[in-house]
Amino acid sequence: MFRKYYKEANDSIKPSEDFVNSVIRDAKKHKPPLRARYTQYAAVAAAAVVVVTGAVTALPMLQKAQRDGGEGIVIEERAMESGSTAAPSQNAVPTSAPETAVGNAGNTAQSPIQEPKQDTPNTSENSYRVPDNAAPPKRDYFPTDESEQYHGSNDTEETESAPQPNIQENEMQNIDEPAQEPEVEKNSAEENMDSDEGGGNSGGSSGGSNAKAILGESDEVIKQENTAPEDMTPYSEKRDLSGISEADTEAIDDADIPCPDGYYCIDASPNGYTFKNDDGAVISVTINYGGADREPYITEEDGSIYAVFTSFGLSVTINAYGADMAAVEEIINQFR
Amino acid sequence: MTDKGLCTGMTDEEIIRAHFDMVYRLALSQTRNRANAEDVTQEVFLRFVENRRKLTSAEHIKAWLIRVTINCSKSVFMNSWFKKTVPLTEELTFDTPEKSEVYYAVQTLPSKYRTVIHLFYYEDMSVEEISRCLSMNPSTVKSRLFRGREMLRNELKGGYDFV
Questions:
Q1: Which of A11, A72, A249, B70 is the S-S candidate for A65 at Cβ 3.0 to 4.6 Å?
Q2: β-strands A282-289, A272-277 pairing
């Protein structure tokens, strides 16, 4: 009896036909299943996976390249192009000794993309090149021309690129590139000399030399300015100071950097030096403008020594072939 | 909507129409409100369209619809909107007083007893079917049926037999 009445009561309850149709209509145009909606994000997800995978794969390689002090991937490309058997990221040393002094002076016209390839000392052919991406001869380590020593002494941003200290390189560049960038920079440096900016804002030698030129201050004042920061200035600055103060009295030869014991300088350029001893051992020093200071990283293998470090904003790379470790350490200590 | 069911041989629209009254009445039994029952019904069939590929047989579809209807009805009561509002009391009218008396007596039962009573007496489902559909032990279904009948006897005070 209960079942009968309850069934009849429920049977009398009917939804309206409009409601039924509306539900069916909504069901027809309902959104697709979730898994179907995921497909539209498949391409984005795949791209994200590729990017993340690439980053994870490349990260250790980049870190290793940075630890080795090179330019990362650029060095690796260089090694592959030069046919070197050992990758620079593995701290391998080049197999051939440095030979030429002014190797790629004309390559300064290369595009910036190609320039980093000239930077590392790992090529077998031009083992000693003037790196194109190396810092332009901003700081005059070895001023050889009196007329350029003045420019080298200016420490402002414009005049840092002005000096052309190496006569040999200047000549080579003049042959390869008639219209050169250093000429313009030199002119700009001279203009800066006449301006009021160069004199007082930069300390050390530059301030002193400009002050001398413009304000006509006495030599004593200049000497005080030059000697005051000497103890706290890096080696490169000291070289500047010495070049300026002694430029008028004595000529600076190529072996201006203190040679290691038993070695003599066979080549000097704004971006490095090459030392050699009587036994045939060769030490090649390449100087770039680097970043933060970094402790020397020295590897020795098969009679070759490879060292890289950054000190006082200078990134120094040393390749020694047949040389002893003491000589390399002596050079390192001179920079640090 | 033109897709044929995998084993039923019916289109989705035909399945919806076939089970529409069952879902609506069960929803009304659970929510005791027409508006809520309509919302529940619409939600159930939207879910059905989304999940129709998973349903393999007519029995499976019916059990699935009942389960989803009960779940959706519970979600109505869990809604914060429902907690903050009082639904309008609406009286369903029946042609005989017995129908009305029996129907509203069932509506006074707690939800868990109301569900098994509805499935047992209106859908003519056995204890085993109810236990499978609600995913509970058959003995639990039996005990709820027994207690539901006892409450109905006290409520109806009439000579209804609960066969």
A1: A72
A2: antiparallel
- Quote the minimal CA–CA distance from B17 to chain A in Å: 8
Side chain identity at A8, as an amino acid letter?
E
| pLDDT tens, position by position, A137-188 | 444 444 444 444 444 444 444 444 444 444 444 444 444 444 444 444 444 4
pLDDT in single tens digits along all 163 residues of chain B? 444 545 567 788 888 889 999 999 999 988 888 888 888 999 999 989 888 888 888 888 999 999 999 999 888 777 776 667 766 666 777 888 888 888 889 989 998 899 999 999 999 999 999 999 888 999 999 999 999 999 998 888 767 777 7
Q: What is the DSSP string of A260-311?
A: PTTEEEEEEETTEEEEEETT--EEEEEEEE-SS-EEEEEEEETTEEEEEEEE
B11 interfaces chain A, CB cutoff of 8 Å = no
Q: What is the CATH number of domain B91-156?
A: 1.10.10.10
Sign of CA dihedral B19, B20, B21, B27: positive
Q: Residue ranges per domain, chain B? A: 1-86, 91-156
What CATH number is given for A69-73+85-97+256-335 in this structure? Answer: 3.30.200.100
Q: Using the beta-carbon criterion (under 8 Å), do A23 and B51 form an inter-chain contact?
A: no
Residue of B nearest to A12 (CA): B94
Would you say the ipTM is above 0.90? no
The answer regarding whether domain B1-86 maps to CATH 1.10.12 reads: no
Task: Enter the pTM of the model.
Answer: 0.40
| Residues of chain A neighbouring B17 (CB-CB closer than 8 A) | 20, 24
Cα atoms found within 13 Å of the Cα of residue B142, Cβ hemisphere only: 4
Q: Are the beta carbons of A269 and A169 closer than 8 angstroms?
A: yes
Task: Tell me the backbone φ, ψ of residue A268, rounded to 5 degrees.
Answer: -145, 135
What b/e string do you get for A85-116 counting C-beta neighbours within 10 Å, with b at 16 or more? eebbbebbbbeebbeebbbbbebbeeeeeebb
